[in-house]
Amino acid sequence: MGRAQRFEVTVEGQHHEVSVELDRLDHPQGHPVRVRVGNTWCTVRPGADETLLVRTAGDDGPQHVVHLCPGRRPQHASVGGEVLAVAVKSRQEAALEAALASAGGGGGRGAILAPMPGRVVRVLVADGDEVEVDAPLLIVEAMKMENEVRAAAAGVVRGIGVTAGDTVEAGQRLCEVVAPEG
C-alpha cells in the first residue's frame, strides 16, 4: 500500500479504523479507491450525487450502494434503505479528543487543567459564574485547532488563572469548577 489517509469512523456507536489508500494522485475522477475498514479491504467508487458504490471481497464481491447526506462530513448514511448515524474524524482529531479527555480538559468538579500545550484563545466564563454540565469554559488552541474545554459537571467557576492570549503547558491549572454553595 502507498500513502494512506487514516480516519476514525463511528457508525451507530461502533468505532472503526479506516484507511483510504492514496497510491496515485493522477487517477481520473470516478476511479475506484481502496479503503480498509478494520481488517477488511473494500473498493469504493463515487456514484451519482452523494452516492458511493462499495464492493467488498474484491472485484467480484457484492456491491452496496451507500447514500451520504450532503456536506463535507456526512452525519448520516443510508444503506439498503436503513439510515445510519455516522461520525468521521481524522486520526489527529481523534487523538486530540482522547488527549483532552484523559488530561481532564473536559472539565468537571475540581481543577480544570490544560489538556496539552497551547494558547488560550478565549475565556468564556467569569469567576462566580454558575455552569451546567457540558458548558464551554475556555477555548484553547493546540496543534492549529481550537478546542473547547467544557465542564463535566454543574457547579460554580472559581479561580480563573488565565486570560486570552496566555500560553499554557499541558496539565496547567486553568480554573476550577466547585459545587454550588447551599
Task: Tell me what you see in this structure.
With 182 residues, the protein is mainly beta. It folds into two domains: 3-91; 103-178, OB fold (Dihydrolipoamide Acetyltransferase, E2P). It is built from one helix and 16 strands. The strands form three sheets. An eight-stranded antiparallel β-barrel has the order 1-2-3-4-5-6-7-8. A four-stranded antiparallel beta sheet has the order 9-16-14-11, with no helix packed on it. Strand 6 (63-68) and strand 7 form a beta hairpin.
Which keywords apply here?
about 180 residues; mainly beta; OB fold (Dihydrolipoamide Acetyltransferase, E2P); 2 domains; eight-stranded antiparallel β-barrel; four-stranded antiparallel sheet; 1 helix; elongated
